Amino acid sequence: MSNKPMILVVEDDAAIRNLMAVTLDTQGYRYHLARNGAEALIEATTHQPDVMLLDLGLPDMEGVDIIRKVRGWTSLPIIVISARSEDADKVEALDAGADDYLTKPFSVDEMLARLRVALRRVNAEQQAPNRESALYENGSLRIDYAAGCAYMGEQEIHLTPIEYKLLCLLAKNTGKVLTHNYILKEIWGSYTASDVGSLRVFMAMLRKKLQAGDGAQPFIQTHIGIGYRMLRMDRSAEDAP
Length: 241
Ligand code: CA
What we know:
By secondary structure, this protein is of the alpha/beta class. The protein folds into two domains: 6-127, Rossmann fold (3-Layer(aba) Sandwich), CATH 3.40.50.2300; 133-239, Winged helix-like DNA-binding domain superfamily/Winged helix DNA-binding domain (Arc Repressor Mutant, subunit A, Orthogonal Bundle), CATH 1.10.10.10. Helices cover 42% and strands 21% of the residues. The protein has eight helices and twelve strands. The strands form three sheets. A five-stranded parallel beta sheet has the order 2-1-3-4-5, sandwiched between helices. Strands 6-7-8-9 form a four-stranded antiparallel beta sheet, with helices on one face. Helix 2 (37-47) packs parallel to helix 3 and helix 6 (161-172) packs across helix 8. The radius of gyration is 18 Å and the shape is globular. It starts with 5 loop residues before the first strand and ends in an 11-residue tail after the last strand. Bound molecules: calcium ion.
């Protein structure tokens, strides 16, 4: 009987798979290994992992199809791993429901940091299963959804309606990387490539207002060419990249 988190590693490259397994083992995680998409789906259904580390370049299946299938029955965090430097693959995977990504080659420290972020999201959801909770708290940031107000410490942050909507969207997905496309669709209902420029401007304004209230805590992380993520501040900044 163990409460150690269970990690599913999906990777066809034996050397990388072994390195990941050894790393997880030394850190006290439990794990299962899958070498291809078919095994990944079997392992995901039989072992109910807490987090899935998914290589996008598998011999038998597109990684993005695995994400879509897995998302059919579970919201477990999925961290995709891509050898390809193309942002398009990551964006497609994130839009399909992945939480985060690692680019090969990655360090084991980076992998462990991303795992901790993913596990925190799971823990936060388990502790607050009522997602319609009226209050959001993250470090000194507070959002009162009922009142439609945001605060940094005791100070109200004065936001435009768009900035407030952006903040709420990021807050409700704390720990997850949200793509430009996803944000544009959620906030404006539609998007074109040129809207990313406006989004960047709104995000810069929002970030400035968040930082003005309380020193320099970087709540919103930028993923260049991909999107944004709200970081969880509650317990130290150990996961800041
Ligand atoms: Ca591969």
